[in-house]
Amino acid sequence: MVSSAPSNATPLCFSINSTPFNHSHTITSAYFSVVFSGLGLSSNLFALVVLAKTFHHTKSRSRSSFLLFLGGLVFTDFMGLLVTGSIVVSFHITHFNWRQLDPHCHFCNFMGMSMVFYGLCPLLLGAAMAVERFVGINQPFARSTVMSSSRACSTVAMVWVTAGCISLLPLAGLGSYRLQFPGSWCFLNISSKPLEMTFGLIFSLVGLLSLAVSFLLNTVSVITLLKVCCGQDRAQRRRDYEVEMMVQLILIMTIASVCWCPLLVFIAQTVLSGSELNIRHLLLWLRFATGNQILDPWVYILFRRAILKRVTPKMDWSRGSITSLYPTLSTSFRRLTRASLRGTIDRLDRDRPNPDKARQEDTPLPVQDATAVSSSI
């Protein structure tokens, strides 16, 4: 007679700690979870409404692509809080028993996948936005043909697919998801065992690499933008929207770095050193990381042109470019343009065999005002 496995065998997701946990710690209180989730959901929902209205009225292709990336980021943060927050709040209100509710670890695996997926997506989207702005500022003509609205949507979808594939790795045997203290959430098993360590390093290094790419490309973009705004070609391209987008992107990158770096470094350091998992530090850095989902939408809500107009009403934000804010720059550029055109015509006359006849046949080039030139671009 073949013996079957004992019915009381501990499932894999419960094999580290036994439930129920002692959930008397203040950082895991129901009040904190409800307020935290409610604030994050309302902030992201408000940002989505503002983004939708702005996208409907925008006519700039580069700004439309950036708004699609930003909309994907805010939507991802909203869904992350909705999925994981509802589970955590339900636990703190009902104190359900995970073993009775989820004897086969399906629910725990789903939450662990959600934590990994919604954790990596903002970091990967931040890197994708940094690449888009880098190309838009340094190679504007190439970007206009490469990054359309449909291409931006495809890039956001690729980020979601990439993060989803990484979150599915434990189901394929690389790592595992375990119930974590105080029993309200599941996350990857932070251990020095080979498979667990590999998955922990993949999660940490993908996040840290995304932050590094964002920092490098955003730094180059800011330097380039400063050179263009302060250099001789400052009047040739529209820059007010690009400055606005770069300010928002820099703040998103800074918030992501402050919120996520401690947790990512903590996971990598713990699995590499083989030391015992510090639960208190894990909970602390997790709170830092989830704070990113609340702060992201406020970057766009507070740092956009409509708000900046009210903060600095004396600055003329109604014109098309930064040079229009400074009339002396427009005058200097107009003089420079006229001098360049006059010199070019003289050189062409010297090179032609019959300058008088050629000048009669040519149509004179109109000289536009610098403000009009920058506004049309």
Can you walk me through this structure?
With 377 residues, the protein is mostly helical. It is built from 13 helices and two strands, in the order H-H-H-H-H-H-E-E-H-H-H-H-H-H-H. A hairpin with a 4-residue loop joins strand 1 (177-180) and strand 2 (185-188). The chain is globular. The N and C termini lie far apart (82 Å).
Low-confidence stretches: 1-7, 317-334, 336-341, 357-377
Q: What is the typical, i.e. mean, pLDDT? A: 77
Q: Classify the secondary structure makeup into a structural class.
A: mainly alpha
Helical region count?
A: 13
Give the helix proportion (percent range).
Answer: over 70%
**Biggest β-sheet, characterized?**
2 strands, antiparallel
The counted number of beta strands is 2
End-to-end CA span: 82 Å
Spatial extent as radius of gyration: 27 Å
- Please indicate the percent range of residues in DSSP E strands (runs of 2 or more): under 5%
Run of helices and strands: HHHHHHEEHHHHHHH
Instruction: Output the strand order for the largest sheet.
Output: 1-2
* Shape category: globular
Descriptive labels:
single chain, 377 residues, mainly alpha, two-stranded antiparallel ribbon, 2 strands, 2% strand, disordered N terminus, disordered C terminus, disulfide bond, thromboxane receptor activity, membrane, phosphoprotein
